[in-house]
Amino acid sequence: MTTTKTPSAEQGSRSHYRRSLGTIALTATGLGSIIGSGWLFGAQRAAAIAGPAAILAWVIGALVALTIALTYSELGAMFPKAGGMVRYGQYSHGSLAGYLAAWANWIAIVSVIPGEATASVQYMSSWKFGWAQSLYDGKELTGTGVGLASILLIFYFFMNWFAISLFAKTNTAITVFKVVVPVLTASALMFAHFDTHNLARQGGFTPNGWSSVFTAVAVSGIVWAYNGFQSPLNLAGEARNPGKSLPKAVISSIIIALVIYVALQVAFLMAVPGDKLGAHGWAGLNFNSPLADLAVTWGLNWLALLLYADAFISPSGTGMIYAATTSRMIHGVQENGHLPGVFGKVDKKTGVPRPALLLNLVIAFLFLAVFRGWGSLAEIVSIATVISYITGPVAVMALRRISPDLVRPVKLRAMPVIAPIAMIFGSLVLYWGRWPLTGKVILLMAAGLPVWAWYEIGKPLTQGRKPWAELAPHLKAGAWMVVYLLVMASVSWAGGKEFGGKGYIPEGVDLAIVAALGLAFYYWGVRSAWRNPTLVATEAELAAEAAEDAADGDKDKAPVGA
């Protein structure tokens, strides 16, 4: 079977990665991923859906991200490997669940790269030049805009081509700038115009009801933004001390980002001129470059210029990060046994998985050609992200059950409570994403199954092998995830009209049903985990590495001349 790789095969490829990233660099990676294009557009998009209650949507989004991130922090510290997020489901449940989780995660992350390029070009369209205004038609990029965004994709690619150390140094510097500018923007807009009457205009604090707050969490770019917490985990193979640095980086990046995003949302809500809230209220706002347009409105031309510059720097910094992390994810998928061997190659000189970088560049071009607007990409990314999240809470507790002796540098006593709550949160956000979007993205998840089927069934058959007996436990262990996606799609279709459903399930009851289903599938998933070949091989590899580290430590302690 392709799922029974030997430890030596994986270790050989992974050994070319350089453990050069410390806590600061990893935190900068996480924060730099979170503060990308989301802060440029997220405030307006969230306000259009939820009105002033968008402030609460950012808080709810952070709470969801934090609970899920805690489960992945334990996993990332246990398995400090490149592309960590695409591996954990394979370790706990084998081939089928592992592949579905990896596919969802990869789709969610790789589509961010063209999204960041799109954001930069869309902001540029507000420049007072004819050629710039022709880049965006109000809904999506024009042909010229796509061409310019393509150039940015190539730039992200080359910034990752040469060395991980170059990426780390560049990203840390960019992240400092990316933090300073949003803080300065929020402060300047608050001082320029702070109209608290906006909270009561056009329907008050929740003009579209509380359901809109939840929908804003799912599709306005909030999940897109906080999803950046996983970037340090995907670079775990290059962390110097993953047991300590990964949890610090993940949690710190979410908390810092929450403060910044709430400040920006408040500043946006209060800075919008009252006369702009016409018949359509917050949903009627249509700024091409929301924060920059408000800066110009209140005479802050210097801030507008700074924002136009940062519209290149912030998304480009995030695009660079995701170009780096997705290449490690492709490497992880290959080592799971579901891609050709060439994508597992790491350049010995630079420590960069260059074939994986090339593949992601091609896929990024495809996404850019199909989804030319930031909003449409944000929706796809957000729902795919939530689907990828559900394996973390299940895998972390499943591995505690089937592999209790694995060394856990991070082990929270409250995890038995945190994990099921994280699963419930993830299920609710998936439902909040609204039908038919939820159905479309779940269908996109199914589109990846032929690749899995080729490597697990087709390829063994062409080699004269009969894979069915070996595949059976993988199918049994992964059944919970397949059924979960089908059930969630059905509930989304039949659910409340406020979430795009047919209204067959009463309002309020639908949320209780989704929460109960999330909990039920959590327990099914935890109980269905098994000691599959990938987990056994990885345990052996980690034990060998620990023995080698201990031997090296003894040598360091030996007296001179011994």
Automatic annotation (TrEMBL):
GO MF annotations, alphabetized: transmembrane transporter activity
Name of the molecule in the record: Amino acid:proton symporter
Membrane-traversing stretches: 21-41, 53-75, 96-121, 141-163, 175-194, 209-229, 250-271, 291-313, 357-374, 380-400, 412-432, 438-457, 477-496, 508-525
UniProt-annotated location(s): Membrane
Claim: tRNA-binding is one of the keywords in the record: no
Entry keyword set: Membrane, Transmembrane, Transmembrane helix
Superkingdom classification of source: Bacteria
Organism, as annotated: Streptomyces gilvosporeus
Topological relation to the membrane, as annotated: Multi-pass membrane protein
Gene Ontology CC: one annotated term: membrane
